[in-house]
Each structure stands twice: as structure tokens, then as C-alpha cells.
Amino acid sequence: MVDEAAVGRIFREESGRSVAAVIGFCGDIDLAEDAVQEAFALALRKWPQDGLPPNPGGWITTTARNRALDRLRRDARGRELLGEMAVLATEDDLGEVDVVPDERLRLIFTCCHPALSPEARVALTLRLLGGLSTTDVARAFLVTEDAMAQRVVRAKRKIKAARIPYRVPAAEELPSRLRSVLAVIYLVYTTGLTRPGLCAEAIRLARILVGLMPDEPEVAGLLALVLLVESRRATRIRPDGSLVLLGEQDRRCWDRALIEEGQAIVRRCLLRNHPGPYQIQAAINAVHADAATAAQTDWRQILALYDQLFAIAPTSVVALNRAIAVAEVHGSAAALALVDELDLDHYYAFHATRADLLRRLGRDDDAHAAYQRAATLAPADAERDFLGRGGRGAR
């Protein structure tokens, strides 16, 4: 039975492929989006009567490409564009097609071009590759639908005005451009920790990217990282909505399948011996996953990994996370001295970390003030409630 829900699932799975393929055909993002939407609208009418085609994604792509071609032929500018195309498939070639994976890869790099703002990169990636509606993306990032729509429109205009190429970067450009792509996918995931639905989308995008770039160790590292963090999702929040710290989580409820998959990827990354930030962060999470209890955590190994991470990514946030490991190995006073050197006053995790260290050192008044400051900056209700109670979850 092919119902609306089934077509919806196929849309989420296949729309990114189809949009990428039609953009590769016609070179116009808006036209490609419209054509794919029209193809799915037609599928909603035809498939319940005719049944699911053998290759639903290929059917959608072929139908969308035909719609785009019809639109180009009707429109004066479209006819001009057709004339400019170096290669145009004949109608005899427009059978049901399998989408070339490189089209999605080109689209990922276009969406994540450094000329676009970080917010625009995320919005376009979710809109075009993730198959999310503007309403869904706006809800996930707590902005109005109009604001998100304007963000997407401005990004598309920027791509057109700046003539951002629809291609995979050349070898010499790839390292810097790939960082932007990975950062967008990781931002989608971390945002999803407090916005339902986005984590699965980020994992799906990471899997797509691994399939498209299997020889890039940082791509594999990102997938391992999100899988290992995701393995603990069910234990992060209590039934009453309060936050559970890593050390207090019920490790029996961690998803062992995700842990095993993530750790296997980390081991393969280690064999390549080309460490990068995402691989090292994945390795840190793999060490946490190895410990049957919080007390058995190998903090010295984690601190060594943070030393390695800070050497290649010397950011204040990495230094803050490293200080947590320092506290476990060398004591809270040593960690607090490091934290107090950081310029992160507007970052809630900075104040939460300070608060915990101050509490351990018996400086309760200072700890209370730091917890309250962290609570005012926290991005989600669970964090705000937890920090407002002085870092103690409801029991």
C-alpha cells in the first residue's frame, strides 16, 4: 500500500539526491526544488493507483528533470540557458535514472561554501539535502518561518550573484572547504541535542558524506563522533525532563550497537594515522564508552587525547573541555586555574564548569553565583533547570 506517509518517507530519503541531480542538469537551485516538489506531488496522485515504481528515487529524478526541461523550454531565459548548456541529454536519454552520487557531493559543498554565513549553510543543507521544509528548519532553530525563508532566499541569491560554482573543490581547496562541511553537519547534530529530529538528520548526512568521501579520515571521524554521542541520548534526560550528567547516566541503557559501530570507525581511523579534530573527539568518546562505570573511566588517556586535540585545534572551548579532564587527573584547583584564564564569559558551559569546580573546592557561594550565571545563558530548558538547581538533577 502506497499512502501519503510512505511517499513522505521516500521524500526524506530521496529528495536530496533528486534536487542535486536536477541542479546538476539545469544549474538552477530554485527550478530544481520546484521540479522535485512537482514530481512528488505527481507521485502522491499516481503511486497509490499504479503502485510503487521499481526505483522510486530514479522515477522522481526523471520526472523532476522532465518538468525542469519543460519549464526551461517555455521560458525565454530558460531557452537561453538551454543554449548555453555544454551537454544536454536528449529525450531518448531521459529514462529512469540512477543518481550519480557526485551530484550530492557537489551540492553539499555548494551549500557549505565559506562565502555564505554559517546560519545560511545550515539552513540550505537541511532544506536541500535533508529534505526538511522551511517550517521544520525554522522550528528546529527557534526562528520564525518568515525569517528562515528569508535566510534561505538570501543564501540562494548569494550563490547566484557570487557565481559560487556547483562543484567539488580542487584538491588544494579541499581541506579548508571540507572543514566547513563537517562543521555544518556537526552543528546540525549538536543543535539536535535540544531540538527533536535534527540528530537523526545529521547522522544521515554524515553517513551520506562517508559514502561519497570514503578516503577522508575526518569524515569518518565525524560519523564516529556523532554515533558515540548519540549512543547516550536515551540516558541524558530523566522522565521529568531534568538533565543527567555523563557520570550519573545508566550505562546499561547506552546503545551498544551505535557504540560498537563508532568504536570500529575510530579503530580504522587510528590505523590511517592522520589524526584530525573529529577523529580525536571520537576517540575521547570511545574511551568514555569503554568504561563500564564512571569510576573506571581512563581519564589519563582522555587528557592525553585532549592534549593532542589542543595542539591541532587550540580553541578556548577545547581548553575548557581539557580542563575537565585535568580536574580528574590533577585535581580541581589545577583545573580552575586553567578555566579562569579563558575568555568565555558568554558561554554557559564555561560558567557551569567553573561552578562545578568551585563546588568541589568547597567555595559554595562562588559556585552558586556561577551556576546562576550559567542558567541564564543555557540554550534549553533542561540545562536551565539543572543549572538553576545548582547542578543537581531532580531525584
UniProtKB/TrEMBL annotation:
Keywords: Sigma factor, Transcription, Transcription regulation. Coiled coil: none annotated. Residues 108-159 form the RNA polymerase sigma factor 70 region 4 type domain. One of its GO terms (molecular function) is DNA binding. GO terms for biological process: DNA-templated transcription initiation. InterPro entries: DUF6596, RNA_pol_sigma-70_dom, RNA_pol_sigma70_r2, RNA_pol_sigma70_r4_t2, RNA_pol_sigma_r2, RNA_pol_sigma_r3/r4-like, TPR-like_helical_dom_sf, WH-like_DNA-bd_sf. Residues 177-269 form the DUF6596 domain. Residues 22-77 form the RNA polymerase sigma-70 region domain. NCBIfam families: sigma70-ECF. Belongs to the sigma-70 factor family. ECF subfamily. PANTHER family: BLL6612 PROTEIN, BLL6612 PROTEIN-RELATED. This is RNA polymerase subunit sigma-24.
